[in-house]
Amino acid sequence: MSKACNIMRLALLQLKGSKDKLANLENACNKIQEVVQEHGPRLITLPECFNSPYGTKYFREYAERIPTGTTSQQLSDLAKKCNVYIIGGSIPELGENDNVYNTCTVWSPQGQLIAKHRKMHLFDIDVNGGMRFKESDTLTAGNDFTIIEIDGHKIGIGICYDIRFEEMARIYRNAGCEMLIYPAAFNMTTGPLHWELLQRSRANDNQLFVATVSPARDETAEYVAYGHSMVIDPWAKIMKSAKEGEETIIADIDFSMVEQVRQQIPTSCQRRRDLYETSKKC
């Protein structure tokens, strides 16, 4: 593979949301077109629940069918118009049997829906003196791993709480993924503690790139997102990091670094499979 094929320009759009779905969608569409014109990325990623407030009482109200809903149609049209891949953050999806899912869509430069990831691990926590949230009150968990391939490079998709489960990341790495992308909305309790830690851990454990895309922080919202969208390299170094407000991150991903790191520190081949089995053989 040539060097040119190993470089992918990635854009992360940290967007401020509201209770106005059409305004949220218009803002996302405008930001997509701006970043295409200014930076020419190959892949653009949006935040978790970018078209709706994040809250159990809102999920069903804002839920849409995929791919026939307004949000899906807008992302499809934009991907085709801008000739770019779009990872559509996540939206509340109205699925089969009237179930509601937290779902990430992925659109090709031809405007085709090439993948759909339903959040596998629902955010049910109760931190003493901090955050209490229970997605399972209204959402149904997905059951499928999601891997997309762009220009010969495999990328695993997760949503927010999925990042806490190292087994999921390991399965993606074993399947040949070189990057993991998580649209996510950590909060002001878990964000300062674990946001950077989890991203660097997944990158270090699996020797790949990790990118996260948060909503911008809005102190007036019922659920306050932490912000700080990031790109982590296979050495577990922070390549790029946003602050709290609306911001666009541009990162040129050099996939050749993945193989370099895996060769220099070959942990995958050094596992004691005579004592435990957690991954496939080299």
Automatic annotation (TrEMBL):
Q: Which Gene3D superfamilies match?
A: Carbon-nitrogen hydrolase
Q: Which GO terms are recorded in the biological process aspect for this UniProt protein?
A: asparagine metabolic process; glutamine metabolic process; oxaloacetate metabolic process
- Any one annotated GO CC term: mitochondrion
- Its Enzyme Commission number(s) read 3.5.1.3
Give coiled-coil spans as residue ranges.
8-35
Pfam families in alphabetical order = CN_hydrolase
Supply the InterPro entries for this chain: C-N_Hydrolase (IPR003010), C-N_Hydrolase_sf (IPR036526), Nit1/2_C-N_Hydrolase (IPR045254)
Q: Where is the CN hydrolase domain?
A: 8-255
Give a yes or no for keyword Coiled coil in this entry: yes
Give the GO molecular function terms: omega-amidase activity
Q: Which family does it belong to?
A: Belongs to the carbon-nitrogen hydrolase superfamily. NIT1/NIT2 family.
User: What name has this protein been given in UniProt?
Assistant: omega-amidase
Q: Which gene encodes it?
A: LOC119638880
